[in-house]
User: Fold this.
Amino acid sequence: MSGETVRITLNPIDTDAETRAVSQAGGNIGAVVTFSGICRADEKGDKISALFLEHYPGMAEQEIGSHVEEAKTRWPLLAVRVVHRVGRIEPGEVIVFVATASAHREAAFQAAEFIMDYLKTSAPFWKRTEGGSKEAWIDANEKDDRAAARWK
Assistant:
């Protein structure tokens, strides 16, 4: 499979360039599905000025890569791209970008959702809010755990 990338970056994510790279990966691509997770201006009703994300270098890429590999065994993917930001991220900026390409849309949609569900629950990232009434680390979300569990 060409066009496969897992990357963690401090830099803003150029979703147009990432989508083009997946679309031009070659093969018989008939569908590209993208997901962009964007920093909101509030967290649980509390206004924030930014999120700060930390990760476990090396382990985060390995964990994401293992879920990409699992997605490739479940769906006939032709390309996958996962880019995740770390550091300070302001409202409106992209936190995470996932793109999957396949010959048909169903596989691309399902694989993108699968990868994103596992990113939310298994990848070693820690998120802290800045601003608002207080700075706080954000705990895991039961809704995300339920979403990931449906793939087992």
Q: What stands out?
A: The longest helix spans residues 105-121. The longest strand covers residues 77-85. The mean pLDDT is 88.
